[in-house]
Specification:
With 490 residues, this protein is an alpha+beta fold. The strands form five sheets. The chain has a seven-stranded antiparallel beta sheet. The chain has a six-stranded antiparallel beta sheet with strand order 5-6-7-8-12-13, with helices on one face. A four-stranded parallel beta sheet has the order 16-19-20-21, sandwiched between helices. It is globular and about 75 Å long.
């Protein structure tokens, strides 16, 4: 999960990029970067939050009306400064690129690029492999100014070589800006055009929120397998380069996206309300005595309100979040997540004492955070603690851009509901069903026929994720190096 932005305006791009990154900071807190262009590239990257990386003096140095910004959390690549995006090549033409997603066959691409094309990948960031595949194709075709069909051929080359999910924005110096999504459209990407003084202006982003903040209103999806190329005269060229089944990531609606974002024609807030309504019916069937509904802030709040309304129960904001602590799920290691929970959340003890509590959260991955929250609630004197989850059990590694890539990271992997409740010290755990998760999204957009639900059902939608790839990822991600059980391909 990352956030990516690209702009081409009639004034300095940096203020737009900086403001746009604020709108997608939730998508990654590990690192951020901006590269602008005014005849040459200017770059500033660093670890941490965008608000801390970019200072007033960078506004003058990062000059030019064109630029790309990125905010990152790591899936491939660590926390090193050289792994922050955007990435840059000086030939052909000069290219900058950033993406959101995860390249599954990164190791194989790295080897083939070195062996067959003598290209050195100098980082552990998978966007560098996409950039080099793209650049190699342009280099083989380049003869004067680029034509749109040459750019589209380079995107086709990426589609043919790169396995995984990727929503990409690139700028080719003096030639134009290109954006594309992988053939399955797993990760979101939107764009907008507006009339400027003399020439039109353009913006691309992972979420509509950034476009709104930058003052762009006419919002459009970059389709699955589609490429959008804006040439040097700012004429727009589009091409549908693949006809695979569109399968957007379901976790966007559960957790990733902001509630005010529009993803695949749906308002995320409305989908989360639907999730609460559907889960409330399953909770009702449990026959539990519940005194109060309490959300685990923030992304479960919308669903929790609907659960309380549907069950005619009081709703209380009894877990108070420290706004200056980032999302624990996307922190880079479990130890940091565990220690951050009590710093991140505090309780209003009087709301829990001598009551039967229904906690509502969006998901349970490793269970560390949930376990600590239940412990805090019990310390306040709650009689019973029930834990409702607005998504289905997470059981399978995600190879498409979520930082959960080993079998051992999933609390629900080999446990029954009773065992999960015992681990959390909860009296009962109630999960959303996968059918109801899909139903909630389709209630807002019936045209969405398929989804990527690999982390829930183990079905890797690209169809080219091999057992060897999963075993390699498992080995790389397991710090202890201990042998793991094989991961099943579904």
């Amino acid at each position: 999960m990352c956030g990516v932005i690209g702009v081409w305006v009639n004034e300095p791009a940096f203020p737009y990029l900086h403001q746009g990154l604020m709108g997608i900071q939730h998508r990654g807190q590990d690192a951020a970067g901006i590269t602008t262009y005014d005849g040459r590239f200017h770059t500033k990257k660093g670890n941490g939050l965008a608000r801390d990386i970019f200072r007033e003096d960078h506004a003058a140095r990062l000059s030019g009306p064109i630029g790309i910004g990125h905010t990152r959390y790591p899936t491939v690549g660590g926390g090193r400064g050289e792994d922050a995006q955007p990435f840059q090549l000086n030939a052909p033409f000069g290219i900058i690129m950033a993406h959101n997603g995860n390249v599954v066959n990164y190791a194989e691409l790295r080897q083939s690029l070195s062996r067959d094309h003598r290209r050195l990948l100098n980082s552990d960031n998978d966007v560098e492999s996409i950039l080099n595949v793209f650049a190699q194709s342009l280099e083989e075709q380049a003869n004067g100014a680029l034509r749109p069909e040459q750019v589209f051929d380079a995107v086709r080359r990426v589609f043919g070589a790169v396995v995984g999910s990727y929503s990409v924005i690139a700028y080719i110096a003096g030639q134009g800006m290109v954006a594309f999504r992988d053939p399955y459209g797993i990760k979101p990407l939107v764009w907008s055009r507006r009339d400027g003084l003399g020439l039109p202006e353009f913006a691309f982003a992972s979420e509509t929120v950034s476009l709104n903040l930058m003052g762009f209103q006419d919002l459009r999806e970059v389709g699955a397998g589609e490429a959008v190329f804006i040439d040097s005269s700012r004429k727009v060229h589009t091409a549908q380069l693949s006809s695979k089944t569109h399968a957007p990531c379901l976790f966007e609606w559960v957790y990733f996206a902001r509630p005010d974002a529009i993803i695949e024609g749906t308002v995320v807030y409305h989908v989360r309300m639907r999730l609460g309504q559907l889960l409330a019916e399953d909770i009702r069937k449990q026959g539990l005595h519940i005194d109060v509904v309490v959300p685990v802030p923030d992304s479960s709040r919308d669903a929790a309100i609907e659960i309380a309304r549907s069950l005619d129960l009081p709703y209380r904001e009894a877990l108070v979040k420290n706004r200056y602590i980032g999302r624990t799920f996307i922190m880079p290691d479990q130890q940091k997540r565990k220690h951050s929970v009590r710093v991140k959340l505090n309780t209003i003890a009087s709301e829990f004492k001598d009551r039967d509590i229904l906690l509502v959260d969006d998901s349970i991955v490793r269970g560390t955070t949930s376990q600590a929250i239940v412990e805090m609630v019990r310390e306040c004197g709650a009689k019973h603690v029930y834990f409702a989850v607005t998504s289905p059990p997470l059981r399978f590694p995600c190879v498409y851009g979520i930082d959960m890539q080993t079998r051992t990271e999933f609390l629900a992997r080999d446990r029954s509901l009773e065992q999960i409740a015992q681990f959390l010290d909860a009296d009962r755990v109630i999960y959303q069903t996968l059918d109801n998760l899909k139903k909630a999204v389709r209630m807002e957009n019936p045209a969405l026929g398929h989804f990527c639900a690999a982390c829930f059902d183990g079905d890797y939608v690209t169809g080219d994720v091999t057992q060897e790839m999963l075993d390699r990822i498992e080995k790389e991600r397991t710090a202890s190096g201990a042998a793991q059980l094989p991961l099943p391909i579904h």
